[in-house]
């Protein structure tokens, strides 16, 4: 019997045991790489709310203890920031274009905000330690995105690597993705999941909701806040800002803009209480808050090149559509015609 073409994936777990598995070409995700990520990220803290949640101070300390270890290296980010756009070096503008493409993919597949934030965290950390050429950025970005998908999404929702390449309209192969993913994971020492601004934003939002009463609880909308965070991720400047400070700045700006509500004082007091826990200076918070406001204005303007899901739609047709998972597109079923109508 002739065997189908296959690729070999070798991954080393922290204990030193090696896993090598042969899988059909194009079905790269069937190997449970996410198990490796989870084994190497046992200390990852997920923020929780509700009666079973840990106390706020405990969750905050757990996130802050890890925040510094998962920050991109500032020296590497400065090199990107000062690089000239000559087509040979990585620049902040190229990074922003790539992040917008990843946001388009996130919306196209319906992935969670956690997946997108984690993908940007992985991408920024890798770019800060590796000098890459612009021609390799698409492969690097998609690999970081795929690592985040396998780490944060349910297995049934993880697309095939080959399908992901097709939909993102890239020309590299699954083998190219495999090699690049190995490089990314090794450079990050297999530390994939760490505290992101989204974790802090959700934790702070939950804390504020617990401390205010009445109509004040309706002032802040977590979906709006998360959408604002996604816009900030598209701006390179926030790669240098601590996730906790970015989350605080987004909340501070939203509370400031909701001044027409009578109980805004309660929201401000709750925010100031969190600020004291973090030890953030007023000047730093005001500075980042103004940057967030400027970013959101630019993002909502017509001058900003926002992610365009329409760009991805042309490929879902014909032979490609038949090869994709059924969950990637919805088929509208016609309602049953009642017999009495005949």
UniProtKB/TrEMBL annotation:
Q: Which Pfam families match?
A: Cyclin_N (PF00134)
List each coiled-coil range: none
Q: Which SUPFAM superfamilies does UniProt cross-reference here?
A: Cyclin-like
Domain spans labelled Cyclin-like: 100-186
Q: InterPro entries attached here? A: Cyclin, Cyclin-like_dom, Cyclin-like_sf, Cyclin_N
Keywords (A to Z) from UniProt: Cyclin
What Gene3D superfamilies does this protein's entry cite? Cyclin-like (1.10.472.10)
Family that this chain belongs to: Belongs to the cyclin family.
Q: What is this protein called?
A: Cyclin-like domain-containing protein
Lineage of origin: Eukaryota, Metazoa, Chordata, Craniata, Vertebrata
């Amino acid at each position: 019997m002739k065997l189908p073409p296959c690729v070999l994936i070798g991954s080393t777990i922290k204990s030193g045991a090696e896993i090598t598995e042969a899988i059909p070409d194009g079905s790269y995700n069937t190997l449970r790489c996410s198990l490796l990520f989870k084994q190497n990220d046992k200390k990852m803290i997920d923020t929780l709310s509700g009666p079973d949640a840990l106390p706020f101070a405990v969750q905050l300390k757990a996130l802050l203890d890890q925040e510094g270890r998962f920050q991109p290296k500032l020296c590497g980010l400065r090199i990107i920031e000062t690089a000239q756009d000559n087509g040979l070096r990585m620049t902040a503008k190229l990074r922003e274009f790539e992040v917008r493409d990843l946001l388009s993919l996130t919306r196209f597949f319906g992935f969670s905000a956690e997946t997108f934030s984690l993908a940007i965290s992985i991408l920024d950390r890798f770019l800060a330690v590796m000098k890459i050429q612009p021609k390799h950025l698409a492969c690097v970005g998609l690999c970081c995105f795929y690592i985040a998908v396998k780490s944060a999404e349910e297995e049934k929702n993880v697309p095939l690597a080959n399908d992901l390449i097709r939909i993102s309209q890239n020309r590299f192969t699954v083998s190219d993705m495999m090699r690049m993913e190995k490089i990314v994971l090794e450079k990050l020492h297999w530390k994939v999941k760490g505290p992101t601004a989204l974790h802090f934003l959700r934790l702070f939002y939950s804390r504020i909701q617990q401390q205010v009463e009445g109509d004040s609880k309706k002032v802040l909308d977590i979906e709006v806040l998360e959408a604002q965070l996604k816009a900030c991720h598209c701006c390179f400047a926030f790669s240098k800002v601590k996730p906790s400070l970015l989350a605080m700045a987004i909340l501070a700006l939203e509370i400031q803009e909701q001044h027409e509500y009578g109980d805004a004082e309660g929201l401000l007091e709750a925010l100031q209480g969190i600020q004291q826990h973090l030890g953030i200076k007023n000047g730093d918070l005001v500075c980042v808050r103004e940057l967030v406001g400027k970013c959101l204005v630019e993002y909502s303007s017509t001058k900003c090149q926002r992610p365009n899901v329409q760009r991805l739609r042309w490929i879902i047709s014909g032979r490609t559509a038949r090869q994709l998972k059924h969950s990637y597109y919805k088929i509208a079923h016609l309602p049953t015609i009642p017999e009495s109508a005949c």
